[in-house]
Protein 1
Amino acid sequence: MKIAHISDLHFGAHDPVVRDALLAHLIEAKPHLVIASGDITQSATDAEFAAARVFFDELPMEVFVIPGNHDLPGMDLTRFVNPFGRYRRHLIDELDPELAAGPVHIKGINTARRILPHWNWANGAVSAKQRRDIAKTFEVATAPWRILVLHHPLMSPKEFPLDITVFNSRELLQTIADQRIDIVLAGHQHHAYIETRQETEHKTLFVSASTAMSTRIRRQPQGLNMLELTDTTLRIDQLRYADGRFVLFEALTHVKPTVSG
Ligand SMILES: [Fe+2]
Ligand SMILES: [Fe+2]
């Protein structure tokens, strides 16, 4: 099974040339599924969500999407009264989606909040209910690969110190370990990397994607991750935008250890 992981599309602050190159790349690469890990728009306007909808509709495969902090309106009344109204109307009603397909069981959670007890509301949070939902999902999941999708990253690449607060991230890391989640997909930093965390014999891969098409690039060009999974093997290709197309710059392979008993 092939899954494309894209993030931080930022429709409204996107580069139309990169947008078209990404669309062409996905149509040609034919992943079974596209996962979009938040910041779909720049300012959460109707026009931006409509442009995102058109893009997703042009993709011939299913799209699994979760919101990011930019998918909340800015400082207007809507942010407080109906924060995800436009997101829900244009994209999908469910903010914490779930999907079981082939060798994967995927749970998404919304970490964007209209208000946080912090000066920077671009940070994220995970609620106790979301942690219970994750546990409930994976207690009964039978697929070999357990994937969690969230916008805000929980791990940091060594060369890019994490300047992000995710409230209750320590508790979430415990849930991830308890539920033996294999892959955590995130975005927000506009920086692609893979970090691993080993809990006894179980390994969790924390995979972050760069921005897929926005002009808001930081240290890295636009990019995407392509995951290829069998029941026991995983290959992650990290692609970068260069000269009009997406090209491979790093690949990682991982074999799932067989669990005895
Ligand atoms: Fe972003
Ligand atoms: Fe973000």
Note: The first strand starts at residue 2 and ends at 6.
Protein 2
Amino acid sequence: MANARSKIASLIGAPTDVGASHRGASMGPEALRVAGLHGALTQCGLNVRDCGNLNGPPNLQMSPTDGYRNLGPVVAWNQTVYDSVYRELAADHLPILLGGDHSLSIGSIAAVARYCRENHRSLRVLWLDAHADFNTRELSPSGALHGMPVACLCGFGPPELLQIGGQVPAISPSCVRQIGIRSVDAGERRFVHEQELEVFDMRYIDEMGVRSVMESALRDMDSNTHLHVSFDVDCLDPEIAPGVGTTVPGGLSYREAQLCMEMIADTNKIASLDIMELNPALDLRNKTATLAVDLVESLFGKSTLMRKPLASTVKLATASTTKRLATAFSHEASVK
Ligand SMILES: [Mn+2]
């Protein structure tokens, strides 16, 4: 199977914030481009193709109807995202969705799920986020759909959104691993437990460290696994990533996020990606976009690793660690 770095990566801009509670994420795709995403991915060895931006209805900031805000526009945008992501997957490309608010991952992951069903691939979704995004209209005070995408993908939400991928539910909670979570309200927490979502929250990361968390989150994948990463920039600590609509203190540090991305890269299985919730209206001189691009480079194999392979380290390491070290050492030349 071809690894990520020999593929065509398709950048798909989805400039909208119809699912968000604050405006501004609609400018995310352009900020990522300005921060040099195309060139950075090219440096990582990907053959990058920018598909431009998708079109959809404007954000009229309607007040919630039947518990959902802007439902019609959110459905229209997700349908467009779904079609576009599916088209790129079917062409054997690696789609990279540039959000846009996180509700658009419904369309993106529904497309990935369909592609996996049709090609007999198993799916693993890594959901990097401060929030579980597992709200329903009964649980959500705002009705903003960017708080509901994981629930929708798992079959809980408005039928118009659930049916986008042609199968309800689009995915099972068992293929999801959530990382960086630190803001979940009581009702949502109960629902996450009920549905047995696997969540590695910040407390768990504090206690166990990123390495152990990522080893668990990436466990049990094989050569048939399609790894999708849904990267909500608000998983990062607001001190380093202020440009998001819903900042929550206590997020991933720069080093923690780098290790997380590098360990994903080491699996060589990433086959689709969402970069979501970047809000340039709240950013400082495009700092958060630049950081997001930096982390995406690591996600596709750029490593800051300096150490040389020590015989004793390799001897003590487990088989999987040895493989990871070997992969990491092969990128030594690209140290920045
Ligand atoms: Mn999110």
Note: The longest strand covers residues 225-232.
